[in-house]
User: What shape does this take?
Amino acid sequence: MTIYKGRRTKGLLFVLSGPSGVGKDALLIHFLETCPGVTKCVTATTRDPRPGETAGKDYQFISLDEFKRMIEAGEFLEYAEVHDHLYGTPRKLVEETLESGIDVILKIDVQGGLAVKKLMPEAILVFLAPPSIEELERRLRNRLTESEPEITKRLLDAGSELERIPEYDYLIENGDLADAADRLRCLVMAERSKIER
Assistant: This one.
């Protein structure tokens, strides 16, 4: 006999945002290994792959023309220009995964995260912050993937992104990767345990 019949059947939508270089990819790798029932949505981008990135796993790398076609066809849940490149979340993939009962986590910028929240108020927004701006700069430089002007631009963007923290539901500081992944896992488990009203 079922104790409570009002349990949810649809997956939960989580949004993970934070400044460039804060460690979103590293966190998700660690988190997804230890939290079953959550899948990462692979977003589309017009930028070129970085060394070590795999098409279809890290991003869907597409042309500017294809991206524009997808915008016109209404195929994105949200899209935005970030650091001079376009990024978008495929609507159909997210909706189908949620309907199947699997939780989805989107790794998208702050602008995109807030756009998703407007379209889907049930989305749970998680902001990943660095311990300090100095540490963020160190991480960006250690990646060796951006030029000096790009690093400067990303640090400037980080300042405006950090100002949007109050618009998010949760804040996780990524000083220690294992601790940050554990905090993310705990908040996912807590959200799964909520009683729907």
In short: The first strand starts at residue 13 and ends at 17. Residues 177-193 form the longest helix (17 residues). The chain has a mean pLDDT of 91.
